[in-house]
Design a protein that fits this description.
single chain, 58% helix, 4-stranded parallel beta sheet, 10 helices, alpha/beta, 186 residues, 7% strand
Amino acid sequence: MRAAPGKVLLDACVLYPTVLREILTLCAAEGLYAPLWSDRILEEWARAAARLSSGDEAFARGEIAALKARFPRASVAPRPGLESRLHLPDENDIHVLAAAISGGAEAIVTQNRADFPRGVLAAEGLSRLDADGFLWALAADHPAQVAAVVERVRAKAEALSGQGWTTRALLKKARLFRLARALETA
């Protein structure tokens, strides 16, 4: 019998790129792990989209509402007072660490290595994973499921963009190089 999927907090920087978010959330929907985020993380995503255009912000808010409905247990709020005892190089990221701790996460998936030192996270029982490494590990444990997820995302990207996408090209654009190699050799 397979162990229950681990809880993983997704930082805003891995939720905002559409292809990356789609792969991560579809893997979660497959039961490969349990996603976590906070309302503040989701708001960071919406604000980042707003910097591009109001249409992008509206789209992001719609996607956020859909994610909240799809994963009702994913939203966690940091415990009161927790943030005041935590320290990170960028104080604006303390809320991410606090949400991960409060949600019982095993890891934080982020592209911001410098802002989440491994030693600080380890002291809290957490690890830091980049999105490519995290998805590569999921693909190693669940190759058929991850390959099917990536194919769904590729087909959707192709339908929405009106242009052909190979899996390799799509994953390279999303900066998922290790995942691309893993799927090619599977």
